[in-house]
Amino acid sequence: MMQRLLPFLSLILLFAGLAIASPHFLTNTNLSSVIRQTAVINIMALGMTLIIIAGGIDLSVGAILAMGGLMGTMAMERGFPITAGVGIGILTGLFWGSVNGMLTTRLRIAPFIVTLGTLGIIRGLTLIISNGLPVHRIPQQFSFLGEGNLLGVPFVLWILVVCALLTHLTLEHTRLGRYAFAIGSNTEAAVYAGIPVKFHTTAVYALGGMLTGLAGMIEASRLMTGQPTAGQGYELQAIAAVVIGGGSLHGGEGSVMGTLVGAFIMGLLSNGSDLLGVSPYLQQAIIGGVIILAVTLDEVRKRRVA
Amino acid sequence: MLALEGIQKRFGGVAALSDGRLDVQAGEVHLLLGENGAGKSTLMKIVAGMQERDGGRMLWNGREVNLRSPAEAAGIGIAMVHQESLLAPHLSVAENIFLGREERRPFGWVSRRRMVERAAGLIERHKFPLRADWRVERLSPAGRQMVEICRAIQHGSSLLIFDEPTSSLSEAETHEVFRIVKELRERRMAVIYITHRLEELRAIGDRVTILRDGKTIHTGPLEGLSTERIIQHMVGREISAIYRREPVPPGDELLRVEGLGRRGKLADINLSIRAGEIVGLAGLVGAGRTELCRCLFGVDPVDTGRISVAGREVKIGSPRQAVEAGIALVTEDRQQTGLALRLPIAHNVTLANLAGVSRRSILNRKAETGAASGYISRLRIRASSPHQLALRLSGGNQQKVVIAKWLFRNARVFLFDEPTRGIDVGAKAEVFAVMDELARSGAALLMVSSELLELLQVADRILVMRQGKITGHLAGRGATQEEIMRLATLAEPSGIGETIQ
User: Fold this and answer.
1) Please, what's the b/e burial string for B260-280 (b: 16 or more CB within 10 A of its CB; e: otherwise)?
2) pLDDT band at B493 (very low <50, low <70, confident <90, very high)
3) Per residue in B408-460, pLDDT tens?
4) Best mean pLDDT range from B9-23, B141-155, B211-225
């Protein structure tokens, strides 16, 4: 139990340490900016949590994020209302998530390969659709999604809280969530129990895609552009958040709480390094080291249980 | 050449060998016989250095040896040809033959040409139907065995152990293996040959050693030893004093299988099981019993035949359809097919029937915990709580969780494939008690077991399979191990194995 709380304790220690080390850390502006910066990765990581629990992986989420943002902003550019634009971004994510799910389950190809392929396909299509050019003519109010405040708190925090809550409820209190755990824990046993494994696996990828589409709209709102090259490397950050939070790439393990903690640990490390003047080059190395450390500690814990 | 005296080996609390004795001479083919689990494979693993003995002596050419690895065994001239070949499928025949013994040049360079030439020479000399440059993955099981044989010969072995070499081979391939074994004998090598097929014996063996329950029961020349005597030695026990299950009057027919066939695996399987019945399925490993269960549960497709559950014909193309038809499968490898080990007991119990604890996809976790608790007490599962992870349970209790899962799914036809493999005696008795309870509550049970005694204890009727066909149909009462053994091992059922309907 002690060790399961370890990521959580590290987050608190990190938070306290930064509060002491830098006078600029505990300010409203800084904390808001941490939240805004981490929200995109955080929401993607929620979807990734579902996928990883079900024993899969999705390397194409960075590309999905870019295409979602692009499609949504292009719709607004053509005069669609903002909500419709956001909806189109989310649906784009849903579409590609379903494609990933169907390819892995129907062709029976490892998800690592399938999504490596769709990563390329989606990136390419996004560049073709946009001609490689970002979308700029977006209604001003759209910035509220990523930059606005509601009741004195960044609007993205509300979105994150709602998404996290829904993901948590899905995982712990619905059949879909239970099947995700079962499929990730032992696919063969799930098949033998008569579970429609292909359908539920696809559904998990689709949900992951949806969340990524939403993250894409937030990213677009923060940049106020539909950027076809957005989200490069985000897939790895999302995976890292899940893994730091105790998710297992073998499937069957992971939690929403863990993922949130994982994403915030990475966010704070990056923010803290900025505040303390650590070189951004070194930052990357630090985060890399933290990933290995976190997974090592988690493995040690699991070996002791087994 | 090789002498084993009083070899002992324990696995946890189970004694696999208590008195293994064997002596093998150069230039003979020595047969090693025994029921499944008699200790043949363990004894041979000790000889081949794959396992260390706990007690007893092993003499090699008169000197006591202690082998700690297959490499050490190979070093003194002992090699094993495995039932499932341990070759690197993506490498060529020649590369496999010399694997680990490549001819080296300086800087770790491997001389490929020399290797292929030497392999070709070896293949030529023994007239193997192989080519040195073929990739092993494309070879048939027989071809792979020949590669293993080449490997053993090349390494200069003087004792070769064959572990059921013909169990996966066709008749022509079997003759090929026999030819090779005889040739090895002519070259004054010693061969230990494990087999289950009694009709093979005379074609190949010189002397025979029979193991039963971890002890060597008989050693001697094959000549003058009747098949009757061999079977008696293998089975041996008196079963009069043993518990037998009290049968219940059977009800309606729940499972009916007609003309079921799967190419190369099963042919013309007909059977019928009524509510309250436990039907045993006997046969040797590879006879098609597991294949039958897999087909009935929709894991493997069938080519012909019909399956009816409770009088209605059902189409079973996937486990899902089988589950929906009310069929449950409990396998020996519960960790592989039955349980999600890292999930709690409760989640495993409800896995096949989440609809039973949810409403419009939303789970009622209280109801779930309640259901699981109910089964924990009803099936006497020893667990601290329904939230305990399945991996923390003992084998017997894990098996009960699997059964609970199917009970919660309201399954009525239960297929048990070696349900008691790897669980201890006490837990076995409890699993039998649960099976008895299932039968009493109106389920139909098909039980595969390699332990004849188990079948005689539990089953109302016993079907015997051999090479994909049902070769015998015996009443549980009055059936004997000898009869079952005969039907399972001999191609032509004679006198004793008459069909009892």
Assistant:
1) bbbeebbbebebebbbbbbbb
2) very low
3) 999 999 999 988 776 666 677 788 888 888 999 899 999 998 778 788 888 88
4) B211-225
The pLDDT confidence band at residue B90, using thresholds 50, 70 and 90, is confident
Residue type, A237: Q
Residues sharing a CB contact under 8 Å with residue B231, sequence separation 6 or more, in sequence order: B198, B482, B485, B486, B489
Q: Is A62 on the interface with B (CB under 8 A)?
A: no
b/e map of A208-241 (b: 16 or more CB within 10 Å)?
A: bbbbbbbbbbbbbbbbbbbbbebbeebbebbbbb
Kindly state whether A182 is in contact with chain B, defined as any CB-CB distance less than 8 angstroms: yes
What is the ipTM, given to two decimal places? 0.82
pLDDT at A114: 95
Residues of A in contact with B340 (CB under 8 A): 181-182, 185-186, 189-190, 252
CA atoms within 13 A on the CB side of A146: 24
Closest CA to B454 of B473, B437, B479: B479
CA dihedral B322, B325, B327, B328 (to 10 degrees): 70
Residues of A in contact with B357 (CB under 8 A): none
Q: What CA–CA distance (Å, rounded) separates A279 from A270?
A: 10
Cα–Cα distances in angstroms (integers) from residue A250 to residues A184, A200, B328, in the given order: 7, 18, 27
> Are the beta carbons of B363 and A174 separated by less than 8 Å?
yes
pLDDT one-digit tens code per residue, B177-190: 888 888 888 888 89
> pTM for this structure?
0.76
B41-54 burial, b for 16+ CB within 10 Å, e for fewer?
A: bbbbbbbbbbbebe
What are the chain A neighbours of B329 within 8 Å (beta carbons)? 192
CB-CB under 8 Å, A178 with B354: yes
Phi, psi (deg, nearest 5) at residue B280: -85, 150
Per-residue confidence (pLDDT) for residue B494, from 0 to 100: 41
Q: Is A195 on the interface with B (CB under 8 A)?
A: yes
* pLDDT, tens digit, 9 for 90 and up, residues A25-47: 888 889 988 998 899 999 999 99
Q: Report CB contact under 8 Å: B339, A189.
A: yes
How would residue B239 be classed by pLDDT, with cut points 50, 70 and 90? very low
- Other CB atoms within 10 Å distance of the CB of residue B229: 12
Chain B contact for A203 (CB, 8 A cutoff): no
The Cα B48–Cα B157 span in angstroms is: 11
Coil, strand, or helix at residue B273? strand
The pLDDT tens digits of the residues spanning B448-472 come to 987 787 888 888 899 998 888 888 8
Note whether B347 contacts A252, CB cutoff 8 Å.
no
The C-alpha angle with vertex B23 and arms to B230 and B166, in degrees rounded to 5, equals 55
What Cα–Cα distance (Å) separates residue B210 from each residue in A76, B31, B40, B48, B236?
Answer: 83, 8, 9, 19, 11
The low-confidence residues of chain A, meaning pLDDT below 70, are 1-4, 304-306
End-to-end CA distance of chain A: 14
Query: HEC states along chain A?
Result: CCCCCHHHHHHHHHHHHHHHHCCCCCCHHHHHHHHHHHHHHHHHHHHHHHHHHCCCCCCCHHHHHHHHHHHHHHHHHCCCCHHHHHHHHHHHHHHHHHHHHHHHHHHCCCHHHHHHHHHHHHHHHHHHHHCCCCECCCCHHHHHHHHCEECCEEHHHHHHHHHHHHHHHHHHHEHHHHHHHHHHHCHHHHHHCCCCHHHHHHHHHHHHHHHHHHHHHHHHHHHCCECCCCCCCHHHHHHHHHHHCCCCCCCCCCCHHHHHHHHHHHHHHHHHHHHCCCCHHHHHHHHHHHHHHHHHHHHHHHHHHC
Residue B58 is inside which H or E element, if any?
strand B55-60
